[in-house]
Amino acid sequence: MPGLSIGTCKRWSTYITMAMFFLTGGIEYSVIFPTMYNYVQELGGEEWLYGLSLSAFSISNLITSPLYGIIFDKTKQTKWIVLVGNLFEIGGNFMYFAAYTVGSPYLILASRFVVGAGAGAGAAIFAELALTTSKKQRTTIYSLFLALRQLGMVVGPAFNLFLEEANFKVGPFPVNRLSFPGVFMAIVWIIVEILFLFFCFRLPHVEQDGETQNSKSVEAHTSNHNTAVTQSTNGDTTVSEDEVAPLLHTKTLSSCINGVAYGSTSPTQRMSSPTINHSVSVDTYILVKPAVREEKGCSALVGRFRKYCMYLLSEMVREEIIVLLALLFVTMFNQATIETMFVPMAEDLLNWNEKEISFFYSGAGFEIILAFVLVSLLSRLLGDRWLLLIGLIFDIVGWGWLLGLVGNATSETPWVMWRFMIGGVIVLWGLPFALVTGASLYSKILPADIQGFGQGFRRSCFSVGAILGALWAGGAGSFGSTYYVLLGVPAALYVLMLFMVLVTFVRLKEAPSKKNQPPSVDTMKTDKSSHKQNKAS
Description:
Layout: H1 6-42, H2 47-75, H3 78-102, H4 106-119, H5 122-132, H6 135-163, E1 167-170, E2 173-176, H7 180-199, E3 207-208, E4 211-212, H8 218-222, E5 230-231, E6 237-238, H9 241-244, E7 255-257, E8 260-262, H10 297-316, H11 319-350, H12 354-378, H13 384-405, H14 416-445, H15 451-475, H16 484-503, H17 521-536
Antiparallel strand pairs: 1-2, 3-4, 5-6, 7-8
């Protein structure tokens, strides 16, 4: 196309291919779940097995997302990470299809666990988006990608129209309305695998306000070494006592760092009586860099792992990070709660059947997509934390509406349908605000070199929220005939999150540019050393 460079075409091709990952995930959700309950029952499974099969996806995603993220941080190879993850998607869906032939409901459980392991690769995609987009574009990009998953959930039921009519055999495998969704999704994921293989490229990382995203490694962050020897104006060598002291315990300094060898010098290289601060003499060495004893074997591995863990701990255990992770957990908990409780409440209060419920789900899906688009547009005018507040206010008003007007409602309550629907619409309208802006702001606060782990940990928090939300909605009916307890906990959680966000509001902003930060002590030492060397020369 005229006017488009090769780099631009590769960028669009990569983003479209990544978008297909989330679109397909949404389609899978809406194709698999409507028939899973009947599938488990058909194979002789009990209700507890159905509930465990629902949770298996989230449990697997919880475990694998941080692992994919760590691999991304070390390799930055999003394409190959997703290619491996898609193999789990393909294999898991084929297992789901083959469960009918085998006749085991436990194979359904295993298949959902395997598919969840593949879905964890989404952490690498979110990390890649964080590194290849500017902070101004981040919220828009995240909202579009999350909206595509929701679009898949909306269009997915359309595929069920022809899947329900299936009744044939492929070799030894019977294909019917229960098993067909598995092989259908396996074929779709094979298509996605081909797209990633040929149309996904490694994109250059963009600079974030003067800070290059390809930032220094954890080792460089945890161990900074400075020049130990400088030349004074009279040609003498000057070394500070604190720099030399660790080096005086041994006669031979022989370590190799970054390809430069340090050790005793030849007679022609030795200096005669160099002058050192506080009369410290090193008459046999020219010290270019401080000697560091190189650890080998298990001790070196343990040391690097310890430094990595301490670095992760220092970056993740911060007030703003904890608040955002708590917000994303609460958002997913409440979303899973409303998704799980909607069907039994609609049947109990409104006497709806599957047709009315399907129409409401479709309408809710379109509403959420519109909310995602609105977030994308408003992100150009308002900051993420302000959009976050808007979402929290919507959700508090919506859950408060449901708690006050539907908490003790029955099927005979006047205007019960409108009470229920208006509250649900308000709640769903606020979800994308909290979901997108929380994830976008989280990616802006995280350092570039742990984006993979951070995004994986965020998705793990999502998975925990989804598991606990579904369990809460499923078990809250035992507290009585009213819905006060069921609706009160999500409302209280959002009120708590509003308080936490307001307290941390000043910190909820992207990290400042390192250009404006004062130089560290090590940097000042290095600059001072360089100045003396230049002066001596």
